[in-house]
């Protein structure tokens, strides 16, 4: 009983962190949930990734509603991004099989470096609007495509790509970018969860415990985002991206030797 209670406390703690970050930065929180499940619950990466989608879905829904009520969601932009992401994910999965495993984390880190530079070149705003036209639709499709490709490659996509992309490429306000990003994640996380449930690849109780907690905390993160100055928000997001890059690199170093050894045995 004591062990089970400790496990619940760990899951709630993960949910608090993931939900707050989700609302604050407009990200799914999977980059926190996956390594935490692997470290504390000793789930393998595949099961941890599948379970994290269960947790992301409610947090993304509540976060998107929170931003939407404040008028900080561009519905058509989110739909366009989602279409591009759905197309890009299988491409990323194919590249995952084609590229050397040691190259993958560094590919993502290189992209993060470009994003960090662009964040500090552009001046963040609070009220920037996305003017949706043919050119903007093409840019959003490409941005969603890139998000999907990176998601398939390194298991990290969504907000870390979409939020800075909307801010830099389309001059969207910081809150509008975050709200739109969260809405984009809803269909992806829900469809992924349904597929994983059919494959019995999900620890549903774990995912729901984290997800419900994250959903409760996501509005708090969105509230903090509204209080924080856009420039300070950019600095915080940049620091978050650095943490994400470190997590991806560490995960890549752990998995690459195991996978390469497995490949050698098959050959």
From TrEMBL:
Listed GO CC annotations: plasma membrane
Q: Which UniProt keywords apply?
A: Cell membrane, Membrane, Transmembrane, Transmembrane helix
Protein localization:
Cell membrane; Membrane
Membrane topology, as annotated:
Multi-pass membrane protein
- Spell out where the chain crosses the membrane: 12-41, 48-69, 75-96, 103-125, 137-163, 206-226, 232-249
**Main localization category:** membrane
Q: According to the lineage, what is the superkingdom?
A: Bacteria
* Entry-linked InterPro entries: TM_pro_TauE-like, TSUP/Inactive_protease-like
Family, according to the entry, reads as follows: Belongs to the 4-toluene sulfonate uptake permease (TSUP) (TC 2.A.102) family.
| Descriptive protein name | Probable membrane transporter protein
What is the species of this protein?
Answer: Curtobacterium luteum
The major lineage groups are: Bacteria, Bacillati, Actinomycetota, Actinomycetes, Micrococcales
């Amino acid at each position: 009983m004591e062990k089970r209670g400790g496990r619940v406390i760990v899951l709630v703690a993960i949910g608090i962190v993931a939900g707050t970050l989700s609302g604050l930065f407009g990200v799914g929180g999977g980059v926190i949930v996956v390594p935490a499940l692997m470290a504390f619950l000793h789930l393998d990466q595949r099961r941890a990734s599948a379970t994290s989608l269960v947790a992301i879905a409610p947090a993304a829904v509540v976060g998107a509603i929170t931003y939407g009520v404040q008028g900080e969601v561009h519905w058509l932009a989110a739909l366009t991004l989602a279409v591009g992401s759905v197309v890009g994910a299988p491409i990323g999965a194919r590249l995952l099989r084609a590229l050397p495993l040691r190259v993958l984390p560094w590919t993502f880190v290189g992209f993060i470096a470009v994003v960090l530079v662009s964040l500090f070149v552009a001046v963040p705003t609070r009220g920037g609007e996305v003017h949706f036209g043919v050119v903007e639709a093409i840019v959003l499709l490409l941005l969603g495509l890139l998000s999907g490709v990176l998601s398939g490659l390194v298991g990290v996509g969504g907000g870390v790509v979409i939020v800075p992309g909307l801010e830099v490429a389309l001059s969207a306000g910081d809150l509008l970018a975050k709200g739109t990003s969260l809405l984009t994640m809803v269909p992806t996380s829900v469809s992924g969860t349904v597929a994983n449930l059919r494959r019995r690849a999900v620890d549903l109780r774990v995912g729901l415990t984290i997800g419900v907690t994250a959903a409760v905390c996501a509005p708090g993160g969105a509230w903090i985002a509204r209080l924080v100055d856009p420039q300070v928000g950019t600095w915080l997001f940049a620091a978050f991206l650095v943490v994400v890059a470190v997590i991806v690199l560490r995960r890549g170093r752990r998995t690459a030797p195991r996978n390469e050894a497995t490949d050698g045995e098959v050959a």
